[in-house]
Amino acid sequence: MRIFRSVILFLCLLTALQATAGDKLSFLKKQFTTTAGYKLNYRVLLPVDYCPEQKYPVILFLHGAGERGNDNEKQLVHGWDMLTNLANRAAYPAIVIAPQCPEEPQIPHKNYWVDIQRPVTPEQRMFRTFPANAPITEPLAAVKELVDSYIAKGVVDTKRIYVTGLSMGAMGTFDLVCRYPNFFAAAVPICGGVNTDRLAKFKGKTAFRLFHGDQDDTVQPKFSQEAYKTLQSIGAEAQYTEYPGVNHASWVPAFKEPDFLSWMFKHVKK
Q1: 8 A C-beta contact, residue 269 and residue 159
Q2: pLDDT tens for the chain, residues 1 to 270
Q3: Of 22, 58, 93, 108, which has the maximum CB count within 10 A?
Q4: Could you tell me whether strands 156-166 and 56-62 are parallel, antiparallel, or unpaired per DSSP bridges?
Q5: Helical H runs in the chain?
Q6: Count of structural domains, the chain
Q7: Which domain holds residue 209?
Q8: Phi, psi (rounded to 5 degrees) for 132
């Protein structure tokens, strides 16, 4: 009898999980060609009851350096389960765009979201610098044109465009917001960094929510700490969460924050 009850309980739990779990395959595989002929692989998740005559919020998701490539798969290693969760998709219907940055050629302007040299040694990581005036990289320029293409289709609520990214993607998040200060309603950079002199000149209304692990030895937490202080100094809306004992993978607890999506969606560009 006990075994029977245990089996019934297990099946009930399994059913409940299946009712909320999403699937990576929900992200459609696409390729976008820019006006200059650059080809960008990306995945897109459409709302469950998508209607092309309706306007939706957009969540732009920028992956980290480890997910670069040309398979149009690796960019969904992290975060896909939160984004495809059926309860989240019902509560926060949005067009989710997840582009993939190429890994080749080995030139920062062509294989990174931001134009910096990726540090290798611990010393380089400690003293890495972020450029103040570097031109937008080829992949990130393609990302912006990709989002613009969805706007041109008339399916985007331009008051509710959100951007988030982890590690290199967080650096790309900062870069996009600095370049286009009136474009995004909210930005969530996770374990990233930015040139604070550049950030100090930010004049937009984007709300920021930063996350970092206090033991991060890949991207030092000081970069998020300094960015947060800079945002406070200019009167920007900003929050910062630092996870004790967490190394680089601070996106794991960040994506588990119960208000991760609701915080984004409460912000509407004025």
Answers
A1: yes
A2: 555 444 343 333 333 333 345 688 899 999 999 999 999 999 999 999 999 999 999 999 999 999 999 999 999 999 999 999 999 999 999 999 999 999 988 887 899 999 886 777 777 776 788 889 899 999 999 999 999 999 999 999 999 999 999 999 999 999 999 999 999 999 999 999 999 999 999 999 999 999 999 999 999 999 999 999 999 999 999 999 999 999 999 999 999 999 999 999 999 998
A3: 58
A4: parallel
A5: 2-20, 80-84, 86-91, 108-111, 122-126, 138-152, 168-179, 196-199, 222-233, 251-255, 260-265
A6: 1
A7: 25-265
A8: -95, -30
Task: Tell me which residue has tokens 């779990």.
Answer: 21
Report yes or no on 11 lying in a domain. no
Total-model pTM = 0.90
Q: For residue 12, tell me if it sits in a domain.
A: no
Domain containing residue 173: CATH number: 3.40.50.1820
Radius of gyration of the chain (CA): 19
How many residues make up the chain in this entry? 270
Domain for residue 9, yes or no?
A: no
Q: Choose among 28, 17, 75, 81: nearest CA to 50.
A: 28
Spatial strand order of the sheet with 28-33 comes to 28-33, 39-45, 95-99, 56-62, 156-166, 186-190, 207-213, 238-243
